[in-house]
Amino acid sequence: MALSTLILTFTFIILAYYLYQRFRFKLPPGPRPWPVVGNLYNIKPVRFRCFHEWSQIYGPIISVWFGSTLNVVVSNTELAKEVLKEHDQQLADRHRSRSAAKFSREGQDLIWADYGPHYVKVRKVCTLELFSPKRLEALRPIREDEVTAMVESIYKDCTNPENNEKSLLVKKYLGAVAFNNITRLAFGKRFMNSEGVIDEQGKEFKEIVANGLKLGASLAMAEHIPWLRWLFPIDEAAFAKHGARRDRLTRAIMEEHTLARQTSGAKQHFVDALLTLQEKYDLSEDTIIGLLWDMITAGMDTTAISVEWAMAELIKNPRVQQKAQEELDRVVGYERVLTEMDFSNLPYLQCIAKEALRLHPPTPLMLPHRANSNVKVGGYDIPEGSNVHVNVWAVARDTKMWKNPLEFRPERFLEEDVDMKGHDYRLLPFGAGRRVCPGAQLGINLVTSMLGHLLHHFNWAPPNGMSPEEIDMGENPGLVTYMKTPLQAVPTPRLPAELYKRVAIDI
Ligand code: HEM
Questions:
Q1: Which domain holds residue 356?
Q2: pLDDT tens-digit profile of 171-185?
Q3: Which residues hold heme (predicted)?
Q4: Using CA positions, which residue lies closest to atom 37 of ligand 1?
C-alpha cells in the first residue's frame, strides 16, 4: 500500500513538473513523451537518424525528452546558426553525465567545462599555445612518420604470400596511426614498437582507456531517470581507483619529461608545453591531466573513423578514387612520397576529405551544449538547463542547401569552396562558435595525409566476391559514429617498392 502511494505521488510530481514546463514555455514540438521516461522508450539506437526522421514530421527544431531532461535538436542551417552564433554564449555550457563529471573532476578540463573564466583560460591555452600554427608545423614530422609507418605495415601485410588477395581490416591500420599520433603528440610517447608490439606503459594506457569506457557504460542506464539511480549507484571506489591509476601514469610521464627537459630542453609535445606554461596560466595539475586526456578522448577515434568512411566511399566510387590518384601522380609522382607541403597542390584530395566529413561527420550530433539561461531559438523557448544538439549530419544533407546531397561528389567543393571549420553553417563537422573543435586543423591535416598516402600507394577494391554496392554503409550507435560493419578491402601496391618504407623520426 505504502509503496503504491509512493509511486503514485512520485508519478504525480513528475507529471505536474512536466505540465508546468509545457505551459510555462513554448517548447519546440516533438514526439509525445511518456511520464518518467520521456521519449527514451522510442528513440532508435542510431540517434541522429532517429532525430532526423522526427524532424521530417515535427519540423527542424524538436523537443526530445530524455527522462525529465529536455533536449532540443536543431536540423537546419538557419537554426544551427542561431544556436552556434547568435546565442552562442548562452548555449555554451556542457551537460556532464555522472561519469563525465567524475572523469573530468566536475569540468576542470576543457571538454566538460561549463562556459566561464576557467573555460576561457583553458581555451586560450589551446588556441594560442597547443594548436598554434607554429606547433602544428613543429609536430608535422610525427604525423608524417606515422602515416609512412601505416603504409609500410599495409604493404607488408598485402604482399605477404599468405594473405594473397585477401582483404584487410582497414581500421586496424588507421587506428594505429591515430593511437600513435595522439599519444606522441600529447604525451611525447610512442607506446608501440615498429613490430606493432605495445610496451608496459602503453598496455597500462590502453587498459585505462578501456576501463573508463566500461565505467561510463555502467552508469548509462539510469543517466536520465534520477529515481532509477539507486539501482545503478556510482561505484565511488571504482571511479576513485580509475582516477588514481590515470593520475599515476600521467604523473610518471610528466616526471620523465621534467627530467628530460633539464638535459635537452622543452619539446613540442603537449605535456612539455603544459608543464612549461603551468605558472603563466595558473593551471592546476588536475587541469593539465584533464587536458591531456581530453586530447586522447577527442582526437583519437575521430580521425581514424573519418578516414574509414572516406575509404568506403572511395571504394564505392572508383571514378573518384582514380581521379584522386591521377592528381597525386601528377603532383607527387612515382619517385617520392606525399608530404603535407603538397596539400596546396592537391585540391581534389582536399575536396575528398571535405566530402567525406560532410556525409559522415564522426560526431553527427556534435557534443551537447547546455543552456545557461532561458533562450529563444526559432521562435521557441529553450529553458535554462536544457541540452541543445545540432544534427550536423542532417544539416549537411539538407536538400534545400545541397544539390543531390546523398551523392559522394567531391567536385561540389571545386565548384563552390565551402568552409568546414565553423564559418559556413551548412557544413559543421567540427561545430562552430566558442566551442568549435580546437583540433580541427590538426584533424584535417591528418585525415588528408592518411587519405593521400592510402590512395597514392595503393589501389583499393572490395573483398573478392563482393561488389562495391554491397559495402554496408550503416552506422553503429554512439556519440562517435563508427561503421556498423568495419570496412574490409583489398589494397594493391602501385608505386616502386622502395617507397613503402617507414621514415622513422624521433621528436
Ligand atoms: C576529424 C577529426 C575531428 C572532428 C570531426 C572533430 C569534431 C569535434 C566536434 C564536433 C566537437 C564539438 C564541438 C562543440 O561542442 O560545439 C569537438 C570538440 C573538441 N575536439 Fe574535435 N574533432 C576532430 C579532431 C580532434 C583532434 C585531433 C583533437 C585534439 C587532438 C580534438 C580536440 C577536441 C577538443 C579538446 C574538443 C572540446 C572543445 C570544447 O569543448 O571547447 N578534436 N571536436
A1: 120-500
A2: 999 999 999 999 999
A3: 437
A4: 111
